[in-house]
Each structure stands twice: as C-alpha cells, then as structure tokens.
Design a protein that fits this description.
Layout lengths: L4 H24 L4 H4 L7 E11 L5 E13 L4 E5 L2 E5 L4 E5 L2 E4 L6 E11 L8 E11 L4 E4 L3 E5 L2 E5 L1 E5 L4 E5 L3 E3 L10
Antiparallel strand pairs: 1-2, 2-3, 2-4, 3-6, 4-5, 5-7, 6-7, 7-8, 8-9, 8-10, 9-12, 10-11, 11-14, 12-13
C-alpha cells in the first residue's frame, strides 16, 4: 500500500514551521540582564553627595558624605566611594571613614570596607578613641556597630587588638571578640578615663 505524498505535505509543512519558529526565537532572543537578574551597572551616579539624618527631636544625628554614589537597581544597593560618616551623640562626635561602603535599601545599614578608621576626639571626661579595621557595619539610627575583621583600638595611651568587635550606643559599650590583647599603661591621677 502506497501512501500519497500529497497527504503528508500538511504534516511536513507544520513540522517545518514549528522548527523554524523555535530556531527564530532562539536566534533573536535578547539577553536582558534585568530579566536574568544580572547586574550590569548603576542606574544612578552622583558626585560629592551629602545625606543628613535627623532624630525625632529634629536635631541632626548623622551626616554621610561621599565622593561618588552609585545606585544598583537589581538589589537596590547604594555604593559609596570614599565615604565619611559623621555621627553626633548627646555628648560626643564620631567620624568614620573608609574606601567604600554599601548602603542597604532604606539606609538602615552601612557596610564599610577598606581601611576603616573610627575617630572620636577627647573631652574633659574621656580620652580620645580610635579604631582601625578592614570592615565595619554600622546601623546609624540604632547607634550600633560590629565587625568580624581584626581591630586595633586605642584610647589615650592604651591599646587593644582583637579578631572582632560589637558596640552598642556606638562605643558606649564595647565588646572585643577573639584573641584580645591589651596594653593599659597606668593612669595618672586626675586624667580623664
């Protein structure tokens, strides 16, 4: 029994059309990085930026300056280059600098990295305080900070080093973590603590 080839024509034509459609879709498919979730670059760039945060009482609590700010839309992260975070407390001021920082969506968390330096000048009641590390996470509104990187802390002539640090009320209470080494010279009478 011989099958007429003209009866197979519609089946062959439909198969060719389906195969051509699949091939055409693959050839013309655009690799859209936003759809695939890949990060190609910032959608917003600003130079010499300044962000100011105020407390419930209307007083300025912190000021965040950066030479360059980049916003990445895929993960809603803001990257800062050469950030300087100036925090104002009730009776002290703290300056934190680094090479770069990533700010979380909403600005609750600042992850600083690269030669992080914390400086608090001395007062009549307290000696100057410095802290050096490679990373530091700061929650400006909560006045908290922490790092799992090695730290070197100096206060007056005293020095301490550790593998990490946690601070509440931004150095009001300070916990050094892992292999803590300290050098505390005797305090002179009448000197600030």
């Amino acid at each position: 029994m011989l099958i007429d080839t003209w009866r197979l024509y519609p089946i062959v034509a439909l198969a060719a059309l389906a195969g051509g459609s699949v091939w055409l879709e693959r050839v013309t498919r655009a690799d859209d990085p936003v759809i695939q979730g890949e990060q190609t670059g910032p959608d917003f760039i600003a130079h010499n930026t300044r962000v100011v945060g105020f407390g419930a009482d209307g007083r300025q609590r912190y000021e965040l300056l950066a030479e360059r700010l980049e916003h990445f839309p895929a993960d809603d992260i803001t990257r800062l280059h050469q950030p300087r975070l100036h925090m104002r407390g009730e009776d002290n001021e703290t300056l934190i600098t680094a090479r770069s920082a990533d700010v979380s969506p909403g600005g609750e968390q600042v992850d600083l990295s690269g030669a992080v330096k914390v400086r608090r000048p001395g007062t009549a009641e307290a000696l100057p305080l410095t802290l050096d590390s490679e990373t530091l996470t700061v929650w400006p509104d909560a006045n908290r900070a922490q790092t799992d990187s090695a730290v070197l802390l100096t206060r007056g002539n005293g020095r301490a080093s550790a593998q990490g640090m946690r601070a509440d009320n931004l150095f009001g209470t300070l916990e050094l973590i892992g292999e803590v080494k300290t050098l505390m010279p005797p305090r002179r009478q009448g000197s600030p603590s």
